[in-house]
Design goal:
mainly beta; six-stranded antiparallel beta sheet; three-stranded antiparallel beta sheet; globular
Length: 147
């Protein structure tokens, strides 16, 4: 899988509390539906494991906008618990959804990270639009896998 820096939502972005917008908003330059034809995919990985002192959760929202001001949520992830947010964990493996007829063609795409707890420490996410995800199992460093 190749990641293009122009298609990164987040690059090891730290997430702690509240709702945090992805560090990058993708500007398509023209309004269009990128969920039709061969849709792009979201590749998202935990780059720093999360911990929580109060049963914290993380929900990811895929959002679009026509004006980079008012955003519409197209799809949201389930609530991931801190215990599920270990390093190298793949999250939210979706294809960019096609738009419903009642949604105006968007120009801007972003992710919102919603922490459903008071304290998440520390945690980071890398997320991007990609053509194909490598949906393979990641193993901890030093682990031997028999072939």
């Amino acid at each position: 899988m190749k990641m293009d820096s122009q298609l990164l939502f987040s690059s090891a972005q730290n997430l702690t509390t509240g709702t945090i917008v992805s560090s990058n908003v993708l500007d398509l330059a023209n309004a269009r539906d990128i969920g039709v034809g061969r849709p792009l995919k979201v590749a998202m990985y935990v780059t720093t494991a999360f911990a929580s002192t109060d049963s914290g959760t993380l929900t990811v929202l895929y959002r679009v906008s026509t004006d980079n001001s008012t955003y519409t949520t197209l799809v949201s992830s389930r609530a991931y618990t801190a215990g599920e947010l270990a390093i190298n964990t793949k999250l939210f493996p979706i294809d960019v959804p096609a738009l419903d007829d009642n949604v105006a063609l968007p120009r801007y795409h972003r992710l919102d990270y919603v922490m459903g707890a008071l304290h998440f420490t520390p945690g980071a996410i890398t997320a991007a639009l990609v053509i194909d995800r490598h949906d393979v199992r990641a193993y901890p460093a030093g682990q031997v896998v028999a072939n």
